[in-house]
Amino acid sequence: MSGIGRASVIIGAGTIVSRLTGFLRTAVLVSAVGAIGQASDAFGVANQLPNNIYAIVATGLVAAVIVPQIVRAGADPDGGQAFISKLVTLGTVALLAVTIVSTLCAPLLVALYADGFSAEQQALATAFAYWCLPQIVFYGVYAILGEILNARRVYGPYTWAPIANNLVSIVGFLVFIALFGGPRETLDGWTPEMITLLAGTATFGIVVQCLVLLVFWRRAGLRLHADFRWRGMGLRLIGRLAGWTFLMVVVGQLAGIVQSRVLSPASGVGPANFATANAWLLFMLPYSIIVLSIGTPYFTQLSEHAKAGRDDEVRGDIVRSIRTLGLFVVVATAALAVAAAPASRMLTNSAEDAVAAAWVLVAFLVSLVPLAVLFVVQRTFYAYDDTRTPFFFMLVQSVLVVVTALIASALLPLEWLAAGVALGQSLAGIIQVVIATWLLERRLGGLRIGTWLTALARFTIAAIPAAGAGWLVFLLNGGVDGWMLADKWWGALGAGLIAVVVLAVYLGMLALLRAPELTPALALARRLLPGRR
């Protein structure tokens, strides 16, 4: 198998285990604080704050700048060792400063993201936030080190380290349930000890995740040391590239703030902040397993071809990655859509809550395939050191997210507000990928769009009867009143059963259509089986 194939399998296998343990972590957390309630939304907002702050400061820089710059620095006489040490030192100092300021501003941040909360709910969220915000520096260091390893074609540790975080969190949340019971959905009775254990566990898990990555650092042949001599490391180029991505992430986070504020009045009435985050977690499962595992190695190769000026090979990388991603993402969309209620039951405490959350998940799924295409298109711009163009199509998407969220707030009852916000985000994402693809086609003088659009159409044709078969399985087993929504574990079993049926029919349809992508895709999938190499 090719290097990309091997890397995809390493990343994919690690992501599968990580996501499974992540789901177990969230299921235990829901058992502790509920899924649709004021306490769960308070914790959800607080625990999301470090992700949002980190995204503003570093995510754009990490995704858009680090991999191409590490690839370029690899040509230095020392293999890029000095540049990496300077980069990690600079990143850690900046992240530490941001963490301190953010933690001091916890009450203001909670009020910014959740103005619809009552004073009591904001107070609980702020108490959680004081414990959660220190995650910023550990998230950041983990991401920087992980992307450096990816750029040097060491993919395993970055993918497998989150499993440690999930296991730590599961243990901590189980201890919380054992000591204080659950689910504790209301605002009454929360003590400092309870807040410390719940939010402190979440932060300690991120700390362990970062430390695990450091254990593997030397095994990758890298020697890391503090280096404050930042002059001459190309900060002007990095700053120019990061400037646009910084603006892009800021715009995205501003849109996220609007969404969070729109959702906060629905807390305790219907799906709100925490339930929407859990629906997004389900939505991101196929994206993480499929898009990141296959797309990340392609991005490293694509960056090398772009740096060498081999545009035709870049076009080939784009076509191959989209066709490969599409085969898997289309069936994942079909399976998750028809299994939305059982899948949502894994992260809720009742069948009624599962059905409500399922509509949010389905609304997100509208954009799953376009999001996979966007992954490839956006990172192709990054490979050419162009972060300015992605800012503008991201700006369009963010404006549409804000507009659709405000429309949903004005027109929909609180029970349907989260689904309306999610659908608006999906529609905005579809428009974004159309604009981004058009701009990249103009830049490269053609993307062979017809080739991969034909493949996506073929996959969709195969997925329609597959989805129908999965929906029939759901109905024959009682639908929303059946055993699949009886509890979390039956929900997991039901979702798995539906997924197996959808996949089997899908593969059969692809075989009938003689899809050329089927054989290499099956070869890649077989690599994930135990004992296969």
From TrEMBL:
Subcellular location: Cell membrane
Highest taxon of source: Bacteria
Membrane topology label: Multi-pass membrane protein
Keywords for the protein's UniProt record, in alphabetical order: Cell membrane, Cell shape, Membrane, Peptidoglycan synthesis, Transmembrane, Transmembrane helix
Transmembrane portions of the chain: 53-75, 87-113, 128-151, 163-182, 194-217, 237-259, 279-300, 325-344, 356-377, 389-411, 417-440, 452-477, 489-513
Entries under PANTHER family matching the protein: LIPID II FLIPPASE MURJ (PTHR47019:SF1)
Protein name per Swiss-Prot or TrEMBL: Murein biosynthesis integral membrane protein MurJ
Origin species: Microbacterium awajiense
